[in-house]
Amino acid sequence: MKKRYLFGSLLLAGCLLAGCDSAPKDDVESKIDALLQQMTLEEKIGQINQQTGSGYSDEMVGAIRNGSVGSILNEVDPEVVNKLQREAVENSRMGIPIVFARDVIHGFKTIFPIPLGQAASWNPQLVEQGARIAAVEASSVGVRWTFSPMVDVSRDARWGRIAESFGEDTYLSSVMGVAMIGGYQGDDLSKPGTMAACAKHFACYGAAEAGKDYNTTWIPELLLRDVYLPPFEAAAKAGAATFMCSFNDINGVPSSGNPYLNIDILRNEWAYDGVLVSDWASIQQMIPTAIVPT
Fold first, then answer.
1. DSSP conformational letter for 288
2. Is a pLDDT exceeding 50 seen at residue 35?
3. Pairwise CA distance, residues 96 & 46, whole Å
4. What 8-state DSSP symbol labels residue 143?
5. Region at 167 (left for phi over 0; alpha for psi -120 to 50; beta for the rest)
6. Which of 247 and 142 is assigned the larger pLDDT?
7. CA within 20 to 30 Å of 84's CA: 41, 61, 95, 265, which one?
8. What value does the mean pLDDT of the chain take?
9. What is the pTM for the complete model shown?
10. What is the longest distance spanned by two Cα atoms in the chain?
11. Which residues, at least 6 apart from 60, have a Cβ–Cβ distance to it below 8 Å?
């Protein structure tokens, strides 16, 4: 099971492109184990490396052929996506597909109201329909992983990312988050027109002290459990393919290196076995002391 946690891009690529959702779990695990046994340390590290898209460049092609890239962000030219995917599948040693990702927050080609506005509709069916349209449009150019929904409960009007949240209510955030996940992923991620959802930011990013982005948070256990964690637990139960660590620390411990949050609660209590990805800024928390792949 730890292999699934550490090499999330490998697992996610398989689910999206090799029909893992419809395959028996034991078969999927066996294929992952077989691949890992053949991989070098550098290739394993490569699977947790996400690069920003730079077109069909010599640098990107070389990195893919060397097995140094697991996913690519913001590449939306389908011709380039197909060429890079062909390099990964046909010209890298392990032939592991690349996962192409983007922040598809409230639509792709068809733009919908911001998530806060969608929450004001009080209509989860409508929210799910919007996410379904976004998934079909984004996946048509190769995007199969979105960093949405943001289910941070936000109660300080000074915080600059309220627009991406579903607001101040824990229950509403849970319902709308689950609706978006269903719209993005459908009932089978291996089908065309779907993309993996990402519940973010785990956790308490919306509780930043004084509403200052990236700031620390001070959260008593009761408040954590009663207000900030329920939308994430709902996302886990809804089958969100991925989670993203938050930028902030919680009571002095960075979220990206928080064993109580990421292991005790997410993995053990909720039995979540999907991908846990760090945000760029959450990695910044760990520098210069350590960088821990998540």
1. T
2. yes
3. 11
4. -
5. left
6. 142
7. 41
8. 89
9. 0.89
10. 52
11. 51, 53, 54, 69, 72, 84
Q: What b/e readout covers 108-136, taking b as 16+ CB neighbours within 10 angstroms?
A: beeebebbbebbeeeebeebbebbbbbbb
Going from the C-alpha of 167 to that of each of 3, 176, 231, 277, the distances in angstroms are: 35, 10, 12, 24
- Residue 130, C-beta contacts closer than 8 angstroms, at least 6 positions apart: 106, 107, 112, 118, 183
* pLDDT reported for residue 194: 97
**Residues annotated as catalytic (active site), given as ranges:** 279
3-class state of residue 209 by DSSP: helix
- Quick one: pLDDT at residue 33? 86
Strand (E) or helix (H) holding 136: helix 124-139
Q: What's the rounded Cα separation, in Å, for the pair 40 and 136?
A: 36
Contact 291, 257 (CB under 8 A): no
Residue type, 230: P
230-237 vs 170-185: helix axis angle to the nearest 10? 30
- pLDDT score of 22 more than 50: yes
